[in-house]
Amino acid sequence: MTTTAPTAARSFWTFWAATTTSNMGSAVTKIALPLTAVLVLDAGPFETGLLAAASYLAWIVIGLPAGAIVQRWPLRATQIGTDLVRAVAIASVPLAWWAGHLTLAQLFVVALALNLAEVLFFSASTTFITSVVPRDQLTSRNSLMSGTHAVTELGGPSLGGLLVQLVGAAPALLLDAVSYVASAVLLRTLPERRQPGDDDPTPLRRRIAEGWRFVTSHPVLAPCTWWACVVNTVCGAQLALFAIYLVRELHAPAAVVGLLLATEGVGALLAAWATPWLVRRFGSARVVLFDGLVGFAAALLIPAGTGHWGWLCFAVGNLAFAASVVPGSVVTRTYRQVASPPELLSRVMGTVRFVSWGCIPLGGLIAGAVAETAGTRAVLLGSAFVMLAGPAILAASPVRRLRNLEDYASEPQHAAA
């Protein structure tokens, strides 16, 4: 479908506003949900690990077929429906708390429901954006989306920590429910979009297999996916342990926990702003190749101190770690969007998320279980060394010879991918 530039621009900015509204509420939930488990229900490391795993488990359950499923659905309606599902799920937590019936089991179910809806929303939204953004603007628009997400990651935890301090962990979740409804209302104003091949009668299993083969056999997409697996395994460990580490090891009150977690947003925002310049100056392939080394150093710093010195180490390390992840994430996502055939795009995005984000619950479960005996500080320190596997994987692939990931299209062996 061809649209005029002003119409496309209006559609993008409406899409951006909806996503930003939803992300702000989700950033509050990112701190309020684990703090509800720790402060209200007295959860330990293993329970917080289970909660972190439930928050990403759907990428393993339906991540692989999600792209093929969504390809047959209208994209705007899919996003609206999943927003409303998430609003209902998150609103159930403060309602149960007020009724005196809140349990850890409910938190696990809510986390899983939120993630199931998120998987389908992601598959629809990452395809929808290509219909409202010209190909040559994808890197800048993806950087803008990442930068905006970083702003919400900066403001959301700070706001969440303050809300938890003022009204309690469970009531703070109401903000997220409202944000999902607002997002759905904004998305409702956009024109509907469907994907190429949405009427393809090919069986679902075969459609999934086509996306899987394209990703896993591609000499550039595949190692970039394995790199993302490494990063997300470490992120899963951090997600599982950060809240309990800050509360029980560094004795930070809820408001301070929110501020310390918000440093992730500072790092992500700075990195998103710098990513277009980094790509122009060094090339996208070199950016993703060296991201893991910066992330390793940053992850080492996160659990390095105690007391107020520990707060500083955590803040600087968390900021730098987030800054190391964003450029690689932006350039690899952009490469997938331009290197994938249009009819395969949603399946490619779903496959990569299935593989890479499936490592988040794995990292969370392992970290939570090991921390029960080894302690949260030791596990966070050990997870830093896992980051070194990312650069090693990329260095053993064609990525090491490239300046930009897109340069691979001119190499002779690309025809065999």
Structural description of this entry:
It is a single chain. By secondary structure, this protein is mainly α. It has helices at residues 5-40, 45-54, 58-61, 63-71, 75-99, 104-132, 138-167, 169-172, 174-187, 204-217, 221-249, 254-282, 284-301, 307-339, 345-357, 359-374, 376-386, 389-395. The two termini are 29 Å apart.
* Computed structural class: mainly alpha
Query: How does the major sheet shape up?
Result: none
Mean pLDDT: 84
Helix content: over 70%
Count helical runs. Answer: 18
What is the rounded Rg? 20 Å
Number of strands: 0
Described by the principal axes of the CA atoms, the overall outline is: globular
Beginning-to-end CA distance, first to last residue: 29 Å
**Series of secondary-structure elements, N-terminal to C-terminal:** HHHHHHHHHHHHHHHHHH
Give the low-pLDDT segments: 410-417
Content of β-strand: under 5%
Strand-helix topology:
Blueprint: H1 5-40, H2 45-54, H3 58-61, H4 63-71, H5 75-99, H6 104-132, H7 138-167, H8 169-172, H9 174-187, H10 204-217, H11 221-249, H12 254-282, H13 284-301, H14 307-339, H15 345-357, H16 359-374, H17 376-386, H18 389-395
Question: In brief, what are we looking at here?
Answer:
The chain has 417 residues and is mainly alpha-helical.
Keywords:
mainly alpha, single chain, 417 residues
